Amino acid sequence: MKPKRTDSTRPKIFQSPAAAAAAASVTAAYALAKSEKLEFIETDDSNFEGVRENNPVQDFSIEINAIREDNKVLVSSVAEVKAENSRVREKIDDINGTYVRELHLVQGQLVVERSRCSKLEAQIAELQKRLETSQSIEDEVQQLRRQKSMVDRNMEMAAAQTKGSGGVCRWIAGTPNT
Predict the structure, then answer these.
(1) What is the value of pTM for the model shown?
(2) Which of 10, 17, 40 is nearest to 28 (CA)?
(3) Residue 36 pLDDT > 70
(4) Using an 8 Å Cβ cutoff, are 28 and 56 in contact?
């Protein structure tokens, strides 16, 4: 690789056409601001046209007026964008306000539903307790029925035995069993 050959006679800033044009523009603006006569540097660059010397103050005033017009257009565009942003922000705030109201309404409904659910859960627990109690009562009733049937059977057996023997009086009287 060969190293690039640099032109040491020109300053490094003027080695590219864009840099040379920018430097010339800055130099011209600085000179205009100081109201001094511009001194131009001669360059060998074919892309650099330089500043025309025939009426530099008039050329700059045209450019300045053009820049001022562009600035007015940009300022009006910025004002329009700010106005649009303001309208959009108002719409967003309005929509957010609507959503906040709806959110509070839904939250209130949710509280009511939670309360209702709690009451229903309490009723369900009470009914389950009653169901368990009724089941134990039914078990008790079944047990009492069995006991009653056993007692009834025992009484029938006892009655049958007493009926069949005729008792002591019959035995003494000598009356036969029927």
Answers:
(1) 0.36
(2) 40
(3) no
(4) yes
